[in-house]
Amino acid sequence: MLLVDKIKETFNNSSDLIIKQSNNIYIVYLESLCSQDKINEYILKVLTIKNSKKLQDNNAAPNIKTVKNYEETINYILNGFTIIIDKEVYAVETKGDLIRGIESPSTEPDLTGPKDSFNESIQTNLGLIKRRIKSPCLVNKDFEVGKYTKTKASILYINNIAKEETVKYIEEKISKINIDGITDASNLKQLIIDNPKTLFPTAILTERPDKVSQDLLDGKIVILVDSSPFAIIVPAFFADFVNPSVDSYKKFININFIKLIRFICLICTLFLPAFYVALISYNQASIPLNLLINFAIQRQSVPFPSYIEAIFILIICAILRESDIRFPTNYGSSISIVGALVMGDAAVSAGIVSPIMIIVIAITYITSMVFTDIELIYSFRYIRFGSIILVSILGLYGLYITIFLFLIHICNLTSANIPYTFPLAPFDKPYFNKVIFNINKKEDKLRTSALTNKNFHKQGEIK
Amino acid sequence: MKKILLILLLILCTGCYDYNELNEIAIISGVGIDKLNNEYVVTYEVINTEASKESSNDIKKYNVKGNGGSLSEAFNNVNETLAKKAYFEQIKVMVITKNVNILDISDYLFRNEKINTNFYLVLCNDIDEIFDFTSVNEPNNSIAIYNLLKQNDYANITNLFDLKINTLIEGYDISLPLITLDNELSLKTIGIYNNNKFIRYLNDNEYRIYKYLSNKKDILINSNDNSIKIYNSKLNYNLENNSITLKYEAKAEINSLNISYDLRDINSYNELSNEFTTVTENEITNFIKQLQIDNSDILNILNKYKLKYPDSSITFKDLTINYDINVKVDKAGTAFKEVK
User: Does any domain span residue A203?
Assistant: First the structure.
């Protein structure tokens, strides 16, 4: 059976499989993946030259390979190569540009710092990182994930910084994956994280190449997935999600104040509604009398208990947020208007909720917008609802229970075998100074020992 | 599964015991207790949460009154007249008359877990008169009294009900501020107690001396048409050889001078200091002697003495007190050199 017929059969006569013949030479490619221009330029033009010794020598294509077996042939066809069947079989890269250009980051914007972001091509993404780290020590190892999708995943690390154990640990996790397919980095992320059942994200998904480069320099490991504009960074700790890496572009004194504000935001967004419900329905003695009078006057017309009121608006807010994400941006503004009307004026004047509750929930939602990781925001939602339910039964005591449960839970998590509460517990000064409380860039000379065991100095001479 | 069930049972069976929805409670800002003909009369000042904040015509508070043979009966009677659950955690002040035995009410209040005892205890002559009054500035009288105490430096932690009762239980004497109605609520003097027994109110002069002995600032002392204002003072007790010495040191500035002193001359200040030291010493000596006659140790002198000599059985009345008073006038204050 001819190779061409075998290929035809394998692809079940797929309509985009093109087979051309010229002078007993067959060329085979998938129309949907290849660029017609490249095929013309690299192959068809060469085939017309007579007396060519070897096709490989006369070809201007940057990537031309000799194919050894049938599986490889299929693999190349599926990856946008054109197969030339002569006496030997060659694969010429003629991939079409199925990707968009490099755009500015949409989910992690920042005022300063680079404005490029990853796109769906793993090569481009790799290029964006290698442009920043021009060192042969930056290693990338490719893996193929998915029985059908055969998605290319690439592990990146700097081999004289990153810990070998961690690299091996991640490699093992990826090689153990046996799945039909993944379509995005977040699919892969869910397959490799330590605690899949937890609410909290234990690996960072980022679209910023500069963030990836920074983390590589710290000894973290990055996984790029083809056809995904996000890179996975492991290990990732709770503090990493609260404080974005772009902080390092700003002066340390100024950014430390913002970090403090972020910490306040974290407390507010997690526990403010529960704290308010506890005060209003159990611990009224803790509110100054004049404020309590105001609260009482405003709550007078509301027929529901305060925890029902809080849950009701929180659910409406969650629906609004979800619809805002799902709905096309062009219609987005109308959603916000309806949301604002329902939430604000109408609900208060209808006597369903009290104005103070609107303020509390508004603060809760505004403070949650400080954090960009969507998974983190989703996990906060659970804590918020959980704390309200416990508070509705136990008052402030319920709030303390929630806080302790939250702390116990995050203390129980690990990311690539490193505690999730790192660098607070266990305390680690270099990483603490990098993420939680920045110090002067000049004095920030050490790398954390949790992420590296061979190269501790990132600045200055080793004494 | 068992664990979850256990946790659920624990939470559901132990929860909600002190659950009060804000619109189902009657917030009581002040309580008045009087004893008339062996009956307790209890008055609550309740905040009207139905009132709109903007409208000034709405009634911002209302009073509820009840009586009973015992304090708990009186409290229960008032609670029954309330449409909502009485909420005592926000009481700012408790107003009593001199007929009320403080230890009796404390006994009831401390045993009642739902009453917060972090409030201020004040005296008044007529509770109805105080609670029925509506001030233009602050419609809630309890808050108005609290603000008044705060302004007069009486709303400090040592004057909280708990600590007053503690003082009484330990066998010492207390003093309570007297709230009177003089167009507005006002604090003119204090009532002194011998342990739990009301003795009398201080007169204006005694109250003034009491104030500067309590290290209050800006108190005027007059002598021969001259007057000084104390801006810094210190009251200490020296305990040696079984005797107690009251040491009062004050720094003052001149408030007004009627006799011509040359304020550029340091001797003038010395003269003034000597003059006012003598005046103050007389005032303090007479005041404390009067307190000894009344047997009311509101300055806690005996307490200090007994800390050093705990075995002594001496009473405040018989205690010999030495005085070491020093008033230093060292600032010209508002007095300027005469323009010729």
Answer: yes
Within 8 A of B18 by CB-CB distance, chain A residues are: 282, 395
What pLDDT is attached to residue A462? 59
User: A59 and A138: one domain?
Assistant: no
How far is the C-alpha of B61 from the C-alpha of A169, rounded, in Å?
69
Q: Could you tell me where in chain B the CATH 3.30.300.210 domains are found?
A: 206-331
* pLDDT at res. A247: 87
Q: State the average pLDDT for chain B.
A: 85
What tokens does B322 get? 């030495």
Closest listed residue to residue B185, CA positions, set B254, B131, B255, B225: B131
A390 contacts on B by Cβ (under 8 Å): 11
A292 touches chain B (CB under 8 A): yes
Burial of B96 (0-12, 13-18, 19+ CB in 10 A): buried
Do B90 and A292 count as a contact with CB atoms less than 8 A apart? yes
Q: Which residues of chain A neighbour B11 with C-beta distances below 8 Å?
A: 390, 393-394
Q: How much is the pLDDT for B232?
A: 87
Same domain, A270 and A395: yes
**What domain range is A353 assigned to?**
250-415
Please give the mean pLDDT across all residues of chain A. Answer: 87
Q: What is the pLDDT of residue B338?
A: 52
Q: Are A179 and A254 part of one and the same domain?
A: no
pTM: 0.83
Parallel/antiparallel/unpaired status of strands B39-47 and B25-36: antiparallel
Interface-testing mutation among B18, B21, B22, B54, with chain A (most A C-beta atoms within 10 A): B22
Q: In terms of domains, do A262 and A215 share one?
A: no
**Same domain assignment for residues A83 and A46:** yes
Residue where a domain stops, chosen among A236, A262, A283:
A236
Q: What local confidence, expressed as pLDDT, does residue A123 receive?
A: 85
Please give the Cα distance from A62 to B302 (Å, whole number): 103
A373 and A224 in a single domain? The answer is no
A401 and A310 together in one domain: yes
Evaluate whether residue A385 is within a structural domain: yes
Q: Do B89 and A295 touch (CB under 8 A)?
A: no
Task: Single out the residue in A236, A263, A279 at which a domain terminates.
Answer: A236
pLDDT digits (tens, 9 = 90+) for B106-161: 888 888 777 888 899 999 999 998 988 888 788 888 999 999 998 888 878 888 88
| Nearest partner of A212 among A187, A234, A195, judged by Cα | A234
In 3-state terms, chain A is what percent helix, strand and coil (to 5)? Answer: 50, 15, 35
Residues A220, A262, single domain; the answer is: no
Mean pLDDT by runs of 10 across the 463 residues of chain A is 82 84 83 84 74 61 81 86 85 80 86 89 89 89 90 91 92 92 92 89 92 92 92 93 88 92 94 94 89 88 90 88 78 67 78 89 90 89 93 92 93 92 91 90 87 85 61
**Does residue A438 form part of some domain?**
no
Nearest to B49 among A296, A305, A394 (CB): A296
Structurally, chain A folds into a number of domains equal to 3
**Distance from the A29 Cα atom to the nearest Cα atom in chain B, whole angstroms:** 58
Say which of A284, A394, A395 has its CB closest to residue B89: A284
Is residue A116 in some structural domain?
no
Please provide the CATH number assigned to the domain covering B206-331: 3.30.300.210
pLDDT tens, residue by residue, B164-188: 888 888 888 888 999 998 888 888 8
CA distances from B283 to A64, B200, B269, B323 (A): 111, 19, 21, 11
| Angle subtended at Cα A199 by Cα A228 and Cα A203, rounded to the nearest 5 degrees | 40
Q: d(Cα B189, Cα B202) in Å, to the nearest integer?
A: 6
Which range (A185-199, B13-27, B126-140, B250-264) has the least confidence?
B250-264
DSSP symbol at B318: T
